[in-house]
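hiii, so i know i said id send this last week but things got crazy w the move. better late than never?? heres the sequnce for the chain we talked about at the cafe, plus the structure i predicted for it. fair warning i was half asleep when i ran it
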Amino acid sequence: MTAATVWRIDVPMVVHGRPWTANDRVHWRTRALYTRTIRESVAWVAKSLHIGPQAHITVGLHYQPGDSRRRDAPNLTTSQKPSVDGLRDAGIVPDDTAEFVTELMPVIHPGKNRRALWLEIEATP
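okay and structure toks below
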């Protein structure tokens, strides 16, 4: 049995150095800009990694906030959705439906000195 392949893609933090969350109330143009920025960035990085088409992937968004304040993981799905769309745009999967993509609940890691937001993409053979 072959082990799963896992890739990591950094996701841009588009709201003044932090991730876009469901709590952000922004104008529709700003929302469109955030969506496009995340989607295009993830697609470009995925293409540069030469991931190639996959039959099915499991995707999880991870956030390391840089401090120890409490946060609500489901709020990060606002950044996760355009990230998954970017993977579809890169041709990794033909569609972002459950047939091709399993999306995990976002994970918030304990605060460190450095902020980071990334996707982990797992493809099983």
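btw The helical segments are 28-48, 77-89. thought thatd interest u
miss u guys!!
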